[in-house]
Amino acid sequence: MPFRTKLVGFAVYFDLPELITGLRIGQMDDIYVHPDHRNQGIGRKMIESLEVEGKKRGWLHLRWLVPGKNTPAVALYEKIAEPDHRKSYLIPIDRISGD
Questions:
Q1: Residues facing 11 on adjacent strands
Q2: What is the number of alpha carbons within 13 Å of residue 63 lying toward its C-beta?
Q3: Residue 90 contacts by C-beta under 8 Å, 6 or more apart in sequence?
Q4: What phi, psi does 36 have (nearest 5°)?
Q5: Which of 20, 23, 42, 66 is least enclosed, having the fewest CB within 10 Å?
Q6: Could you report the per-residue pLDDT of 8-51, keeping only the tens digit for each?
Q7: CA distance 34 to 13
Q8: Which of 34, 38, 47, 30 is nearest to 8 (CA)?
Q9: Phi, psi (5° rounding) for residue 76?
Q10: Within its chain, how far is the Cα of 5 from the centroid?
Q11: Distance of CA 50 to the CA centre of its chain
Q12: Which of 76-80, 81-85, 89-93, 95-99 has the least mean pLDDT?
């Protein structure tokens, strides 16, 4: 019987320079677990895997931004990480209106 794998989630991350120290950091831009597979520790395991990768790469830290309305995700992140002191701002750019 052939071995089959099923994609149940993913994390998108980057290895970036940290401008103040000159060291490297991990920046996780997105993490997703399919709804049928949530609450099974998969998101936590993906973050733990990024921690291991960060240690191999010599990262200063792993950081990510979280939409405040994502209550289940925020509950997990508050258990495993420290809140950052930064705030996030954005200016919408209307790319449709006028070239």
A1: 31
A2: 14
A3: none
A4: -70, -15
A5: 20
A6: 999 999 999 999 999 999 999 999 999 999 999 999 999 999 99
A7: 18
A8: 34
A9: -65, -50
A10: 23
A11: 9
A12: 95-99
